[in-house]
């Protein structure tokens, strides 16, 4: 009986220590940024995915993931990532700009212009 109690305490202690050391979405995102700057895009994408697992509403992780996919030449995955970022934050001007650039690269001028127009609307300076 005494051994069972000690085993339970040990399991709880290990479980609590693992919770204390769990990485946050921000930690994963920062690691992704580190890999991105080193042009290790696959590792960056993996870290951004981990950030999204920790926080599915982390739109910036989708945005950076899209840019990494773009640099790897996977435009369809880049579009998906940018679209996911916009689903979370429709007013993300940067996501509209990057999505427009992808559509331009894919020779889809109508879709590109729609995204560029959204970008311009979001970044327009109001006149007095």
Q: What is the N-to-C succession of helices and strands?
A: HHHHHHH
User: How does the helix and strand content classify structurally?
Assistant: mainly alpha
Q: What's the overall geometry? A: globular
Give the number of helices.
Answer: 7
Terminal-residue CA separation: 79 Å
Report the portion of residues in β strands.
Answer: under 5%
Gyration radius, in Å: 21 Å
**Tally of discrete structural domains:** 1
Structural description of this entry:
The protein is mostly helical. The chain has one domain: Tetratricopeptide repeat domain (Serine Threonine Protein Phosphatase 5, Tetratricopeptide repeat), CATH 1.25.40. 80% of the residues lie in helices and 0% in strands. The protein has seven helices and no strands. α4 runs antiparallel to α5 and α4 packs parallel to α6. The longest helix has 19 residues. About 12% of the residues have low confidence.
Outline the secondary-structure elements:
Layout: H1 2-20, H2 25-37, H3 41-54, H4 59-72, H5 75-88, H6 93-105, H7 109-123
Helix pairs in contact: 2-3, 3-4, 4-5, 4-6, 5-6, 6-7
């Amino acid at each position: 009986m005494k051994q069972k109690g000690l085993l339970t305490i040990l399991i709880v202690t290990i479980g609590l220590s693992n919770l204390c050391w769990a990485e946050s979405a921000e930690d994963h995102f920062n690691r992704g940024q580190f890999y991105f700057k080193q042009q290790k895009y696959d590792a960056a994408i993996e870290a951004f995915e981990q950030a999204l697992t920790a926080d599915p509403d982390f739109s910036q992780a989708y945005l950076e993931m899209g840019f990494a996919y773009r640099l790897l030449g996977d435009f369809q995955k880049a579009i998906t990532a940018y679209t996911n970022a916009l689903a979370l934050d429709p007013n993300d001007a940067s996501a509209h700009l990057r999505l427009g650039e992808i559509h331009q690269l894919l020779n889809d001028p109508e879709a590109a212009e729609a995204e560029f127009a959204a970008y311009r609307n979001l970044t327009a300076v109001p006149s007095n």
